Amino acid sequence: MYKPVKLTDSVYYVGVNDRRTHLFENMWPIDRGVAYNSYVIDDEKVALIDSVEIGQVEKYLKKIKAIIGDKEIDYLIVNHMEPDHGGSIDIIKKMYPNIQIVGNKKTLPMLEGYFGISDNTIEVKEGDTLSLGKHTLNFYMVPMVHWPETMVTFESTEKILFSADAFGTFGTLDGGIFDDEFEFDYYRDEMRRYYSNIVGKYGSPVQKALSKLGGLEINMIASTHGPIWRNYISEVISMYDRWSKYETEEGVVVAYASMYGNTEEMAEAVARELAENGIKHIRVHDVSKSHASFIISDIFKYKGLILASPTYCNELHPNMESLTTKLVHMGVQNHYLGILGSFSWAGAAVKKLTAVGEELNWELVGESVEEKHALKADKYEACLALGKAMADRLKADRS
């Protein structure tokens, strides 16, 4: 029933698409869905690389059967235990009771904790290998990319890196499964949104992983989400390198909260002045409408950030507070910050946004602007001055 998707003559894609789930991890909108990827190596010994989310198990098992028929699966390689990849382990174990489950010392306690499985397991360490016959699996630990047990598996005969969540992206695979079967730009932004929100806190571990894997000759990267990379390998590795160093492009994200339009008016004045001073990339987000994942993705892309909030019960507007809490939690680095605030009887927004910038060690640009009641001429001019100061600071980096 299923036409097998081959990476090579004996390595197969058996992933599934999920177009029904609205929120990934019950947090991040996935209007374009998500793919859960798994792979089969059909050799003298059969290895299954990762599994899929439990809701997709029926069609997943049909794909496996279409490749191996009534053969046994000898090994299940668990690169990552998160339930969108490990969710089917218990069912696979019941279907193939003699299967040996391969993981590291941090994987195996999770395996028992989630499923009560403690038998027929193989613990692997950094640099260990496993022969399947013609194929040899090599194991590398990449902790905190993005769970502590995460590892990657490199098949050294075909030179395929099974990379767990690394190099993954939101978005289903709509016919094209390999990166030369569709337009790469279709996935670029969703790859950054995936990285910034799921992996973004762990820039240092990602750098360590990239250094560790840098000496491998890689013909394909087979992630657990999104396309199989074989044509754009150097580009996706470069993207991860830049993002994990918090390197950015020239541009400004203007993120504002506004109850009755006064703070929005301030934000728009700044945005217009940025454009008039030669900044081409400006992304304006109402934090009460734009989901935080899209705002954070843009912040990972652009150097400049304007945060604008009214004072709400002596605090930040709750949606702005939520965004800034996420940014602090992620430890987002290397940004220029401009601040706007408004209030009706007691101002606190500017003070609290300044504290966010100080905690993150961002460079404060220009004079912060705080207006009482509606925007008036003098504070309007101050907003323009802040926009120009941000533009000038960004342009100073061009040389």
From TrEMBL:
SMART domains hit by this protein: Lactamase_B
GO molecular function: electron transfer activity; FMN binding; metal ion binding; oxidoreductase activity
InterPro entries: Flavodoxin/NO_synth, Flavoprotein-like_sf, Metallo-B-lactamas, ODP_dom, RibonucZ/Hydroxyglut_hydro, Rubredoxin-O_OxRdtase
Pfam families for the chain: Flavodoxin_1, ODP
Domain spans labelled Flavodoxin-like: 252-391
Family statement drawn from the similarity comment of this UniProt entry: In the N-terminal section; belongs to the zinc metallo-hydrolase group 3 family.
Protein name per its UniProtKB record: FprA family A-type flavoprotein
Organism: Plebeiibacterium sediminum
